[in-house]
Amino acid sequence: MTRCVSIYKVLGLCALIFILTGCAAEKEPLIISPLSQDYMTEPTMPKYPGGTEKMFEFIADNLRWSDDDACIQGRVVVSFIVEKDGSLTDVKVIKSVDPAFDKEAVRVVKSMPKWEPGMYRGKPARVKYCIPISFRLAVENY
């Protein structure tokens, strides 16, 4: 009886070795180590050339606001996708104030230069991005 049990143990051990060698022969590992290169590089967000301050300077310099709309103020939120090459696509308004301001905000975002793309696992990636564009009345000194 003990001889049968030991034969089953040997057969089970052989089967386990056979299964493990079959797994080792696969091209991709079944379990990814948390210390692998993919997990050591953190994703990065896309960046406007020169940083956020330069982006808002660009918006302020290129925003055209007519005198007819001088009594309206508010914040338009625009979303867009920064593509792998840094270009901006799918520009649309997600929070509106006035149709004229929405159109102007979209125009300014579309006129931006290419951004530095976001990175994921060391490769450029498409990233959705949102920015607020404020339309405010100029405060005059008395």
Describe this structure in words.
By secondary structure, the protein is α+β, with helices and mostly antiparallel strands. Helices cover 35% and strands 23% of the residues. A three-stranded antiparallel β-sheet has the order 2-1-5, covered by helices on one side. The protein has a two-stranded antiparallel sheet with strand order 3-4. Strand 3 (118-120) and strand 4 form a beta hairpin. The longest helix is centred in the N-terminal third of the chain and has 23 residues, at 2-24.
Care to give the gist of this entry?
With 142 residues, the protein is of the alpha+beta class. The chain has helices spanning 2-24, 37-40, 52-62, 99-110; strands at residues 74-82, 88-95, 118-120, 123-125, 127-135. The strands form 2 sheets. A 3-stranded antiparallel sheet has the order 2-1-5, covered by helices on one side. Strands 3-4 form a two-stranded antiparallel sheet.
